Amino acid sequence: MNHRIIWIAALALLVGTGSLWAQTAAPAAQPASESPVAKQPVPKSAEEVAAIQAMLSAPDPDSRIKAANELLEKFKDTEFKGVALSFLTASYQQKNDYEKTLAYGERALQADPDNFNIMLMLARLIASRTREFDLDREEKLALAEKYANRVIEGLKTAPRPNPSVTDEQWVEFRKDLTAEAYEALGMAAFARGDMDAAIQQFNNAIAATPFPDPATLVRLGSAYNKAGRFDEAIATFDKVIALEKVDPQVKQIAQAERARAVQSKANAKP
To answer: Would you say the pTM of this structure is higher than 0.70?
Structure first.
């Protein structure tokens, strides 16, 4: 799983300058058999189209940040404000700039309160960066949980992000996003030290999609280990290790965590 919708939704708005500009003249009719589509932003000039295209074609985080800021500065009334702020948020996350990711994420949600990708990004980021002895731990984790729960509830009735996303794709995307939201809740529970809740939420994430993220399984195994449920931890890590297509780093972590679970089990014997 990843935050692919943020890029797919934005890129699908611009399948070439001609199709984007055509939105201002004759929007395509929506087939009656398809589900509702979210209102699409429309550019107001050829110059704005060029600025949007520059943002979408930027090859790296720094150039995307520059292009997105230029779009927002030059076209104050652009309907692509939410898209630009989403690109800024994602770009600063790629740069590992925690504070700016949060700041631009909040601005993106002000522009588009139903931006599930940004909610997920913030929920996961906040949960992953919160530590046991942070003085504001509960405040931060409550915010992460708020975002994750809004995603779970909002996706139940959310329209397709744009016409190029089919009903079938949207069903699959929603499953992935829902799984990520449950995983964020599990991460928050883990950071709080509530392993029972973490185990439940990670299992919810795994059940929500036909293709669970191996990293979620690793987190579940770690929660089992922390809860003293060593056999379940070992079995979970074994599932990750047995997968053929898995990131080598994730598999390496699973192997190390499995060894830790085996040692913890041995130490726990009377």
So the answer is: yes
